[in-house]
Amino acid sequence: MKIERSSEWEEGFINKLHEHGKWDSWTLYKMNYDIVKMKLIPDFTGLQATKYLPNLKPLKHQLEAAETVIERMNGKAILADEVGLGKTIEAGLVLKEYLIRGLVKKALILAPASLVNQWVEELNIKFHIPAVAYKKNVQIERHDVLIMSMDTAKKSPHKERIYEQGYDMIIIDEAHKLKNHKTQIYEFVQSLKKKFCLLLTATPIQNDVFELFYLISLLKPGHLGNYDTFQAAFSASKHDLEHDDFLKELVNQVMVRNRREDTGIEWTNRRVQIIPIEFTKEEEEVYNLLGTLQNTGSFSMITLQKEMCSSKEATGLTLTKMLEDNAQPQEIEGILAKLMALEVNSKAKKTLEIVEQAKDKVIIFTEYRATQIYLQWYLHSNGITSVLFNGKYNKSKRDYMKHLFKERAQVLIATEAGGEGINLQFCHHVINYDLPWNPMKLEQRIGRVHRLGQEHDVHIYNLAIVNTIEENILALLHTKIDVFEKVVGDLDAILSNFKESV
Amino acid sequence: MYPQQVHSYLRQFFNETNCPILGEDQHYLTVQLTVDIDKRIMNRPFYWQYVEATNSEANPAQVTFITNQTASAGNLYGEAIHFGSPRMNQLFQATRELGAYVQLFEKVDNEIGQVILTPWLGVNFKVSYCCDRTKETLYSFGINLLTGIIKEDFQETICTSEFDTVPADNAFHVQYIIKPLRALERLHATIEQIIERDDHSWATEAKKRWQHDQRVLDYFYEEEEEKPECYDIEKKALEEQYDTKIKIEIINGGLFYLY
Known about the structure:
The complex is a heterodimer of chains A (about 500) and B (about 260). Chain A has about 500 residues and is α/β, with parallel strands linked by helices. Chain A contains 20 helices and 14 strands. In chain A, the strands form two sheets. In chain A, strands 4-5-3-6-7-2-8 form a seven-stranded parallel β-sheet, with helices on both faces. Chain A has a six-stranded parallel β-sheet with strand order 9-14-13-10-12-11, with helices on both faces. With about 260 residues, chain B is α/β, with parallel strands linked by helices. Chain B is flat and about 85 Å long. The mean pLDDT of chain B is about 90. At the A-B interface, strand 1, helix 1, helix 2, helix 4 and helix 11 of A face helix 1, helix 4, strand 5, strand 6 and strand 7 of B.
């Protein structure tokens, strides 16, 4: 085994002896020794970062994840813990470790716009890393750790400036947005130099294991050939263990995934209820009338029906827009008139019931701004205070709304984007007023409250109006969830079998 | 290193290198750098080339280092510095360069009368076992340049003593019999002996991990006669990652005349 001896010091020492030159100070000599001692890596395994983060108490699974990424995966990994387990902490530990060891000098973090501020806070306060959010007058070159929204980064001129910087480490939050390789953002990330790279996502796959292909290809380009040959090779040989073993190997080489049940932490339960609701005769009439509209132009029938299941306010907005476009003004006007004449919103009524019975804080998720505003008014007229939460709010407004929800209001009404990135463990009732098409969205919504720190069982109410499109959505969600669970089950089997064999 | 430690480190460094501190509170420090320190830590070689080429007046930087960004008032304009930031590493590098060679005489109380100071060579070594993981050990040796006796943990023994760059009036320092370079060789030999006797199963295990990863890589490119470029890139990356070697580095050292 080779032993490398550096002769640098010796040469300098010889010079000093001969020149009778100026020697160094005892203080600086001691400082030098002390720093080297402090930065020493005393073991092959284990993180040095925790020595310098006294206020951070990472959980066992978080430390293990960070160690695995550094020791086994050489800093290129998919962090795929379930929602609420602290992927940000794991990523922060890895980044801090590499910064301390001098292996990373510049790092770029790409996240959805709504999460940028949260990253800034976490890195600065928990990890003492002076991360800065990119804004209009921020000079990219001046900051070693930069956080930018994915939407901004993929466009010129930012794209080019990022290439120029030569970041050592790229961290991407909500990396499932990269699943589609035909997007601008995927191509952008693909062409970035990735010395170290972390992809964070709670939902790395949705429909089949092969979706992993694109994420893995970002970290190990070329290994899997192209998507078609990959799928052909592994579908056909499901019974060929050798093929599966190597695929398992590859997945385990790049992915870390913790599930709630593995963390050894006691989690509270989720109690999901489907609440069926019946339209009044009048509501039903309007709903059916919408179904008869022939020429909806650029607006889809499905959208209208879904909006009708939400509120007349949401539906009315769309109908009014259609009027401006359309060639059938009379039909639409007729429906609008009946719509506006409606006095009861059955779903809102049911919602009120649930809120009153809960006698506790409740979050309501809706897809429509118009419904959001209506619900606030409706609840208020029944003596219940609420605060709104939207994607457009800036950091201080979001913090303030969260504060109001905690201290004053009983209800928080959030739109989808508003739901990203806030942690509300003090609440344990969630009403899905409108159901999303994508089950991942449900998971993300529930993840706002069912996370580390939640002390109660979490009650989830999925509202669906019978005999409408919502019944279809519900059925579809269940199918997709089953598929998801099976596929994730497949994924977890791949990962756990590996663990057992090690 | 917590913010307070970063702060004291900066203060101590700038004091020792004669950079006047112009302003300070708990969370920041404004310092006027000297030309030498500016060159060592500010990373602007082109500016200095320009100054030297055009014979202009040198204008070393004045910098405000914010040692605790979260605790400080938001309106400070300066550079946030923390353990792990590149600037901090540059400071450590500068400390390394400026604290590498010493010749020191132990301070002795005047009252005692004539004293004799014995010459020692003290050297601090860092030994690194490197593969895809790293393990480092510090060794501090002192060798008596009269008797040839080697002492371990030398730095720990002397770090609390007081030294001067010239001998005290009542002290007589003996000239060394064993030449310092010869003594250094002996210390190198001692280190190599320690390494030889050590357990190196870490290297065999690294090799196993390497072979394992190489097998997986080969599997995925089995079909291809002509391996594409990315195969070679990955193969080279694996090689660099797992290559085992042992590095011996001298951190600093010097002549110590001890009482």
